[in-house]
Amino acid sequence: xxxxxxxxxxxxxxxxxxxxxxxxxxxxxxxxxxxxxxxxxxxxxxxxxxxxxxxxxxxxxxxxxxxxxxxxxxxxxxxxxxxxxxxxxxxxxxxxxxxxxxxxxxxxxxxxxxxxxxxxxxxxxxxxxxxxxxxxxxxxxxxxxxxx
Length: 148
Known about the structure:
Aminopeptidase, globular, 7 strands, oxidoreductase activity, 4 helices
């Protein structure tokens, strides 16, 4: 079973549609609006969608925004959000694999701090993010930067 992380590609749209349908249990295909947003992600470099591919299928994803700033010597900060893992592929370390990849990805882009907002963290999310070096500040986990 080949498993690796990478930025999403145009050809991932069907797998992502399936992933969102199965993980959210709503069973609704992407709307035209969601299709357009996905294309904008790929074309405009507004946001990266990072994925885990397992056996040629996308089984997990997260949104990744690297935001330029004038502060901190012009270094950007990053936001990682909307982590989603296919229900049939959970408890296999894919969330951690994807977050490790995402952290490396944004650090290579020069991010001085990484935020991972989580509204209602489950215990496993708290353990995973803290094990990866985050500290919890309210409803947000923070990697790097200065403690507030």
